Amino acid sequence: MIHVLTTASSRALDRYTVRSEEMTEVGLMRNAGRAVAIEVGKLLRGNTNCPITVICGKGHNGGDGIAAAGFLTEWGYSCAVLLVGKVEEMDAVVSETYQAAGVEVQETAQPETTELGTEGLVIDALLGVGVQEPLRESIDQWVRIINEYQGQVLSIDVPTGLSTETGQVLGTAVRADVTVTMGYPKLGLLINSGPDISGRVVVADIGFDGSYFAEEEAGIAQFARDDFAQLFRMPARQTFKHRQGKTLVIAGSLGMTGAAVLAARATILSGAGLAVVACPGSIQHLYVPSMPEVITLSLEDHNRGMFLPEHISAIRESLAWCSAVVLGPGLSRSPQVKEFVRDIFEHLDAPTLLDADGLTPFNGDVDKLAAAEVPLVVTPHAKEFAQLFDHDLEEVMSNPVRVLSEVRNYFHHTVVLKGAPTLTLLSTGEIVVNSTGNPGMATAGSGDVLSGIIGTLLAQGYTADEAATMGVWLHGSAGDRAGRLYGTPGMTSLHILEQLPLTLAEFSGE
Questions:
Q1: Which DSSP string do the residues of 342-354 spell out, in sequence order?
Q2: Torsion angle of alpha carbons 335, 339, 345, 346, nearest 10°?
Q3: Are strands 152-156 and 178-182 parallel, antiparallel or unpaired?
Q4: DSSP 3-state of 501
Q5: Are the C-beta atoms of residues 49 and 57 closer than 8 Å to each other?
Q6: 175-196 pLDDT, tens per residue?
Q7: What is the reported pTM?
Q8: Lowest CB count within 10 Å: 337, 410, 416, 447, which one?
Q9: Which of 435, 444, 437 minimizes the C-alpha distance to 482?
Q10: Residues sharing a CB contact under 8 Å with residue 292, sequence separation 6 or more, in sequence order
Q11: Does domain 225-505 sit in CATH 3.30.70.660?
C-alpha cells in the first residue's frame, strides 16, 4: 500500500531523513524544486516562451517554489518570482536555497498590483502542509487572484488553503490543475474537497528515507490495484463449490427484499461457491425469481414479513454450515428484529459482516460488538457510524480520520466507513484510504452489494482486514467500470453487480 502523510508525519519524515543523513534539508528542497520544474516542462511541452509566475510564501513551500524557479530559469524559461514577504525573513534553509537558485524575487508583492495575464502558468508556492486555520487576509487575496487567472495553475505539495488533515477548504483555497506533492500523497488531497481542488496529483520522489515507516505505528495508507492483485487468489484448477466459500446472508424484510437480493447476488458474482439467504417465509416468493443461483431458507413469519426471535433455532444449522455470515441489509428496525439480531449475534462462530439494520441494535452498546470473538467487519455510513460509536455526525463527515483514530483505541475489529472515499480502520489500527469509486455509486443498494462482496472474501478465508480492503476496492472498481459504460448520473447498483465478474476477470492472468 502507498503511505499517506498528515502534517505531523510529513514533518516527522523530513526530520527522520535529515537525521539519518540520507539528505539535507536544502537537498530535499532542491529536489522538490527540480520535481516541480520537470512537471512544468511537461505541462508547457518545453515551450520556453510561455511566461511563468511563481508566487511564494517565505516558508518552506515558498522555498520549493524558488528552487523550481531556479531550475526553470537555468533551462531557459522566463520566471517572475513574487515573494509575499521579505528575503530577510526566510529561515536558513530557504535562504540557502534562494542563494543557490540564482533568481531575483520581487519582495512584498501585493495582489492588488499584480497582473497575471491569461497565458502561461502560475505556480502556487504560498503555503504548504502546516496550515490548519482560515487564511489571513493577505494570503486570501492572493488565492483569489490565482483563482481568477485563466491559465494553468500548479500547486506545490497541497493547494494553498487546503487542510492537510481533513481535506477541507480553510475559507478559500487555490483550485489547481496539477498538484506536485512530495514523497507520498497527503491525506487532504484524498478526502473531502481535496480531490476537487487539487487537479491531477503527481507524487514526486525527492529522496525521503522510507525506512521511517517501519518505525511508525498505525499510520495511513492508500489501497490500490497492485495491492488487490497481490492479495487476490484465483480459484485452484481442481476446486469445487464448497471450497469457494459458503456464505449465509441474513437480510431483507417486507419492502426491502432488494437489499437481500443484491447482497446475495453479490456474493455469487464475486466468487462465492454457495450462498444461502435466510428470509421471512411470507416474502420468499419475491426472492427466488431474482436469484436462481441462490438457495433460500424460508422461515415461518406468520405473514409479518420480517425476522423474529423464534427464527434463531431454525437458522443455527445454517450457521454451522456456512463459512461466513452477512447480517443486516434491509432487516428493518422493528423491536422484534433488533432482538433477533442481538440474539443471533450470540451464536455466531464464523467470520461476520454487519451492515445497516444489523448495526442499529448495538447503538449505545458497542462494547458488545467489541467483545466479539469471531473476525468481524462492520460497514456503517457516516450517520450509522455516528450513532454506533456515539460521535457527532458533522465531525464524522468533516474529519473522518480523527474519529477513526479515536475509535481504534477501544474497538479492535475492522470498520469500513463508507463514503467518498471509503476509509477502512484495520484491526491493527492502520487507516486505509480506498482509491476507487465515483459519484454514481451513491445509489440505493450499492452498500448491499459491498456487503455481499466482503462476505464472499471472508468465506474464502481472507482475514477481516484483507476482505474489507479488497472488497471496498473491488466494489469501487466495478463501479468505475459501470460509470465508464453507463455514465455516473444513471448508474444503479445492478450496474455495479454486473461488472463484478468482468472486474475480477482482469486478474485471471496475474
A1: HHHHTT--S-EEE
A2: 160
A3: parallel
A4: helix
A5: no
A6: 999 999 999 999 999 999 999 9
A7: 0.94
A8: 410
A9: 437
A10: none
A11: no
Which residues have a Cβ under 8 Å from the Cβ of 493 and sit 6 or more positions away? Answer: 262, 443, 444, 445, 446, 448, 449
Q: In the structure grid, which three cell numbers stand for residue 101, read together?
A: 537558485
Cell of 91: 529561515
Please say whether the beta carbons of 184 and 222 come within 8 A: no
Cα atoms found within 13 Å of the Cα of residue 239, Cβ hemisphere only: 15
Q: Which amino acid is at 267?
A: T
Cell of 7: 502534517
Amino acid at 442: A
Three cell numbers at 22? 540520507
Strand partners, 349: none
CA atoms of 113 and 105, how far apart (whole Å) = 15
C-beta neighbour count of 232 within 10 angstroms? 17
* Residue 113 scores a pLDDT above 90: no
Spatial CA neighbour of 416 closest among 468, 451, 338: 468
Residue 131: which residues within 8 A CB-CB, separation 6 or more? Answer: 160, 161, 163, 164, 170
Each residue's pLDDT tens digit, 427-471: 999 999 999 999 999 999 999 999 999 999 999 999 999 999 999
Q: Alpha-carbon distance 147 to 136, whole Å? A: 17
State how far the Cα of 246 lies from the Cα of 321, in Å rounded to an integer: 8
Q: Residue 447 in contact with residue 408, Cβ under 8 Å?
A: no
Q: Which residue has the higher pLDDT, 269 or 288?
A: 269
pLDDT score, position 131: 87
pLDDT of residue 166: 95
Q: What is the pLDDT of residue 510?
A: 52
Residue 375 sits at φ, ψ, to 5 deg, of -55, 130
In the CATH scheme, what is the code of domain 2-216? 3.40.50.10260
The rounded Cα 475 to chain-centroid distance in angstroms is: 13
Q: Which sequence spans correspond to the domains of the chain?
A: 2-216, 225-505
Q: What is the DSSP string of 472-493?
A: HHHHHHHHHHHHHHH-STT--H
**Residue 120 CB contacts under 8 Å (≥ 6 apart), including other chains:** 44, 50, 51, 52, 53, 151, 152
Q: Which residues pair with 376 in a beta bridge?
A: 352
**The pLDDT of residue 153:** 97
Residues belonging to the chain: 510
CA distance 243 to 208: 45
pLDDT band at 112 (very low <50, low <70, confident <90, very high): confident
Distances (CA, A) of 186 to 2, 72, 387: 11, 25, 29
